[in-house]
Amino acid sequence: MLSKKINALLNEQIASEAAASAYYLAMASWAQAHGYNGLSQFLYRHSDEERMHMLKLFHFVNDRGGFSEVRAQKTFPSNYKSIHQIVEQILKHEVKVTGEINKIVDACLKERDYTTNNFLQWYLAEQIEEETLAQSLLDKLNLIGNDKGGMYQFDRDLEELSKAKIE
Ligand code: OFO
User: Fold this and answer.
1) Atom in ligand 1 nearest the alpha carbon of residue 46
2) Average pLDDT across the chain, whole number
3) How confident is the model at residue 81 (pLDDT cuts 50, 70, 90)?
4) Long-range contacts of 133-140 (CB under 8 A, 24+ apart)
5) Which atom of ligand 1 is the closest one to the Cα of 93?
6) pLDDT tier at 165, thresholds 50, 70, 90
7) Does the pLDDT value for residue 166 go beyond 70?
8) Spelled out in words, what is the top-level CATH class assigned to the domain 4-161?
9) 50 in ligand 1 pocket by Cβ < 6 Å?
């Protein structure tokens, strides 16, 4: 059974994962409109993953006798300066999400809610992967600089990456 406090924290996280999904969807739309097909596919897929993260939490809360909330979404920007800016924002966003999950884990340990703590370990592992991927994309973009051929290849590589399985 979930405590009120953990239930509330998990509802915050449900809202955060839903927001991440919408944020990446907004970025995907920009990327597609600007001809970055690889990046848009990568972002559509990333948006789907965040929705899956949201649903996984949603079902966990309800299965544990809590109550999952659906909250209203804010509007995300439809304009971005560059691919570089988008990848920087993804990294920043993922670091923020890691901090949020750490905060819930901390609360679980204080309350001795080992079940939720155990459930959240999957999210922590996922965050390491996502932060590492965003950082490596940013490193590549820094290497490419303004080279158009390099940017074309980068977009092609993202297209390949987007074909991998969703989790
Ligand atoms: Fe960005 O991964 Fe969800 O939690």
Assistant:
1) 1
2) 96
3) very high
4) 134/87, 134/90, 134/91, 134/94, 135/91, 137/87, 137/90, 138/84, 138/87, 138/88, 138/91
5) 1
6) low
7) no
8) mainly alpha
9) yes
Atom 3, ligand 1: which residue's CA is nearest? Answer: 50
Angle between helices 114-144 and 148-161 (to 10 degrees): 150
Q: Where are the beta strands (DSSP E) in 54-93?
A: none
* Best mutation site among 127, 131, 133 for ligand 1 pocket (most ligand atoms within 8 Å of CB): 127
Ligand 1 atom nearest to CA at 126: 2
Inter-residue contact 48 to 167 (CB < 8 Å): no
pLDDT value, residue 74: 92
Domain boundaries, the chain: 4-161
Question: 68: pLDDT confidence band, cut at 50, 70 and 90?
Answer: very high
Residue pair 129/72 in contact (Cβ under 8 Å)? The answer is no
Q: What is the token pair recorded at 146?
A: 């303004």
104 lines ligand 1 (CB under 6 A): no
Q: Is the per-residue pLDDT at 31 higher than 90?
A: yes
60 touches ligand 1 (CB under 6 Å): no
Q: Give the long-range contacts of residues 121-124, CB within 8 A, separation 24 or more.
A: 122/56, 123/53, 124/98
